């Protein structure tokens, strides 16, 4: 296969990835959304982050109830406290990474 084929594949993948991520921002700048829709959309980032957090804190097995991953839960507690106190995403992430690293070290 030629280099131009790979370049076309790369450009196609870029376009397919770019459209659903960037196009909504471009369209919402051009139009005004109703207040109820804006309120609904304001909850999406928190919902997505909560789903990602729960997925990393729970262990799922078919046919069983989810169980907690205790090292991740213990690392999440200081990160949650830092998040409540500072509202700084970088400090939250660093606290969580440092917490899980220390727990895995010992």
UniProtKB/TrEMBL annotation:
The keyword Transmembrane helix applies. InterPro entries: Brnchd-chn_aa_trnsp_AzlD. Keywords: Membrane, Transmembrane, Transmembrane helix. It comes from the Bacteria. The chain crosses the membrane at residues 6-28, 40-58. This is AzlD domain-containing protein. It comes from Enterococcus dongliensis.
């Amino acid at each position: 296969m030629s280099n131009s084929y790979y370049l076309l594949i790369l450009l196609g993948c870029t376009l397919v990835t770019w459209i659903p991520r960037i196009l909504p921002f471009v369209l919402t700048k051009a139009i005004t959304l109703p207040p109820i829709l804006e309120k609904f959309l304001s909850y999406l980032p928190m919902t997505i982050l909560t789903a990602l957090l729960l997925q990393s804190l729970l262990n799922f097995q078919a046919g069983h109830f989810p169980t907690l991953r205790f090292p991740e839960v213990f690392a999440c507690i200081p990160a949650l406290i830092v998040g409540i106190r500072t509202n700084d995403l970088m400090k939250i992430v660093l606290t969580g990474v440092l917490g899980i690293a220390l727990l895995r070290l010992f």
